[in-house]
Amino acid sequence: MTARPVLLVTGGSRGIGAATCIMAARRGYDVAVNYQSNAAAAAAVVASCKAAGARAVALQGDMANETDIIRIFAEAKAALGPLTHVVNNAGITGKSSPLAQADTAVIRSCIDINVTGAILVAREAARALAANAEAKGRALVNISSAAATLGSPGEYVWYAASKGAIDSLTVGLAKELAPAGIRVNAVSPGITETDIHAMSTGEAGRVDRIAPMVPLKRAATPDEIAEAVLFLLSDASAYTTGVVLRVAGGR
Ligand code: NAP
């Protein structure tokens, strides 16, 4: 029997991460679902993964915290076996405002998770995937944002800058890991229907406000973003590395 691929998704309990976990389980991956605080949401994702025939486990850990990051990689391996794929997804925006009105704490917490945390997750992914040298098709997908090139003026330019860092990380790490046969790509979503708008930006009506500005005239569903992530995880993209794939409805 061929071993099933083993995927860790950071921030897998809700939104794009949850859609990715469930779609991956349906396509034959075993899945480690990281979450920060919403244990019930993570448990629901694990149940959906198991219903699809996958092995799955929920792993609590703050992806801004190095100790937690290292621990969840170890726990994922202990529960499911050596990792073959990682999705570096956990992220926040912080409350929207022009930069001149932004609190230092809002900026720092965004950079701690979206930049420092994401780079540490990528480092642990590089270590874990390199250690699993005999596995085929190893891949890391980072979740960026169209904000990296739009700049998010008046909303959260610090968040846009954090995602610019993810794009650079993707290009460089792809070149570092290519000789080992490990691919690194990013998905850059446009506005997507998730909790992030009400819970992180503080603007519950943000999707309705932005959707008319999108050439396709609507927000993405989390499944539409997960489809791109699954493509970049899979052997269907075997010759693609160092790419930032924009999935933003033309925006
Ligand atoms: P979301 O619905 O707010 O879900 C965020 C997920 O990340 C949850 O599972 C949450 O866990 C987890 N999380 C948050 N902080 C964490 C931390 N410090 N450590 C571990 N997990 C943490 O977000 P989303 O909209 O799906 O966004 C996912 C990614 O896509 C982010 O990187 C975001 O920047 C990016 N993105 C989103 C959009 C959009 O319009 N939605 C557009 C472009 C890019 P809990 O359930 O425990 O809170």
UniProtKB/TrEMBL annotation:
Coiled-coil region list: none
Superkingdom of origin: Bacteria
InterPro entries tied to this protein: NAD(P)-bd_dom_sf (IPR036291), Sc_DH/Rdtase_CS (IPR020904), SDR_fam (IPR002347)
MF terms in GO: oxidoreductase activity
UniProt keyword terms in alphabetical order: Oxidoreductase
A Pfam family assignment: adh_short_C2
PANTHER family: OXIDOREDUCTASE, SHORT-CHAIN DEHYDROGENASE/REDUCTASE FAMILY (AFU_ORTHOLOGUE AFUA_5G02870) (PTHR43639), SHORT-CHAIN DEHYDROGENASE_REDUCTASE FAMILY PROTEIN (PTHR43639:SF1)
Recorded family membership: Belongs to the short-chain dehydrogenases/reductases (SDR) family.
Listed name of the protein: NAD(P)-dependent dehydrogenase, short-chain alcohol dehydrogenase family
Protein source organism: Bosea lathyri
